Amino acid sequence: MAVDIRTLLLVQAMTLTLALAVMVILYVRYRSFRGPGWWVSGAAAAAVSLLLMLGRSAVPADWFAHLGGLAVIVSYSLFYNGMRQFSGYRVEPWLPLAALVLSLLSPLLVPVFEPAQARGIVLSVALGTLSVSTGLTLLRGRHRPGEFGRRFTCMIWLLNGVMMFGRTVLLISDPAMADTSGLQNGVGAVLMWSVLFCFAMAAGPVLMTTEQLADNLARRTRDLESEIEERQMIQQRLSDSEAQFRRLIEAAPFPVLILHPPRGTILYINRLAAALFRAGPAELLDRPVEAFHQHPAAARSFVAEVTERGLVLDQEMLARDAQGTTLVLLVSAVRLPFHGQDCIMACANDITARKQLEQALEQARDDAETALDVQKRAMSEQRNFLAMVSHEFRTPLSIISSSADSLAALHPEEESRLTRINRAVLRMQGLIDTCLAHEWLESATQARRSDRVEIVPLLQRLAEEVRALHPDRVLDLDLSALAEESRCPDGPVITGDATLLSVVFSNLVENAVKYSPAPAPIRLEAAVERDDILTLRVSDSGIGITPEERERIFEKFFRSTRTERTPGAGLGLYLARQIIGAHDGDISLENPASGTGTVFRVCLPLAAPVPAQA
């Protein structure tokens, strides 16, 4: 059966139509791939060239020669750039442009070759160059060039380049090869190769696209596997973190609850929280926290506040346990994720006992204030009573004393009896002063007087009173050191209360008289020592004080075991220390030089001298 050129062109047309259809499908289905769009355009340009060949009888020869050649070069150029993009390279316009320019310069070869021969040579060189460039692009492509489809397509394009360059050699050596009117001169072989090349143009892209899909699928599979592995690792870390979080909550030394807003549903509770509410976890889980609150609206408000602010600290709440017992809780809460949910972790501190203690303390304070008010009223009444008693006693005592003095002048023979009367008066006056001093110390609001007290006259009056009360005792008052003191030319002066100071000195001297034998003298001496300090010493040679009792003699109501047979209340030395302390002074017990008896030392700051008036 004879095959003419038209039959081969029809076969080539069908093959090219198949290739065009395949490339359109690839372009429509895989728009994300770079390259199929260029392939479709290249196949369309090849179809235009083929249509020109089929209609060559209706087209002038020169038009066919130029238009057909340009269409084929455009087709190869589009395939070349499509393969570049598919292989991972950018579009290269210079080589296709050079091929087009070269085809337009074919008339320059007319002086050397026949016009048809010149056009054939230029077209073959241009197509061969584009074919080899396309094959090399596929060979060194960035996207895995060792795949079968890519190698197959690369081989087809390289073979096509070899065919084009071979045809160029034949055209140069034999001008008859430029005649394409029949199947002679190798035209049939070229058309047969064109049919195969069109088929390869359809098969190659399909293979490459399939392999690219497989590669993308494999890469996506690897990515998914990596992502799954990463998610599993994250899930494992999250699981480990939640397990650690649970252990921390269980080990927490305070009750902890995990709540889910908006109702505050209990999702988790540690053992201390379960013990606080006196219920098992199963009884508490999945229940709203307001069920254990005295005021459900306050519980809902608390959950809403934590949800909005993210953190709430030290808020008091009234709750109740499973048995209905009221609890006072100090709650702090924070928002955090738990099991993939936005939850609230609440930490509670049971302050019920503290609140009860505060209430008890408040009640005790109220009771104490009430008792204090009662005591203040009683003390006020006592002060008024003592003031009344002092006034009522001092007036008759003064009358008795003055009357006794008058009688002594009129009746000298009754002097001994009248002297006893004066002693009793002085004793009563001393007792009144002691009571008033004790009352002054017991009153926290009583203000201390700040008079300028001259010490020498005060001590001299004290000595006279003691000698009058105890004529059988010897009181040695030594003020010689004060007379020699240049810092006190007018005598030492103390700022304070003369009555209270008299009570102190009188108590010390009376104790010396009371606890020492009658023949033994009592010594009262005064001197100004360092830093303008007045020092008074009261010494006796009496029973003394044991070392064990020396630290306690200034305690209230304390009496030495050696003085049990001697009447007394144990207030004298206590009052002395309090009064001297109120005057910024100090009273202490010294070791006697003789080894027996007692020595009390009183230190008082001297008053600042009064500036002389001009």
From TrEMBL:
GO MF terms, alphabetically ordered: phosphorelay sensor kinase activity
CDD domains: HATPase, HisKA, PAS
One Pfam family hit: HisKA
The protein's enzyme class: transferase
E.C. number: 2.7.13.3
Family annotation (Gene3D superfamilies): 1.10.287.130, Histidine kinase-like ATPase, C-terminal domain, PAS domain
Reaction catalysis annotation: ATP + protein L-histidine = ADP + protein N-phospho-L-histidine
Family matches, as InterPro entries: HATPase_C_sf, HATPase_dom, His_kinase_dom, HisK_dim/P_dom, HisK_dim/P_sf, PAS, PAS-like_dom_sf, Sensor_HK_Regulatory
Listed transmembrane segments: 6-26, 38-57, 63-82, 94-113, 119-139, 151-170, 190-210
Coiled-coil ranges per UniProt: 207-244, 347-378
Sequence ranges assigned to domain Histidine kinase in this UniProt record: 388-608
Keywords: Coiled coil, Kinase, Membrane, Phosphoprotein, Transferase, Transmembrane, Transmembrane helix, Two-component regulatory system
Keyword Phosphoprotein set for record: yes
Domain of life: Bacteria
Protein's name according to its UniProt entry: histidine kinase
Organism annotation: Novispirillum itersonii (Aquaspirillum itersonii)
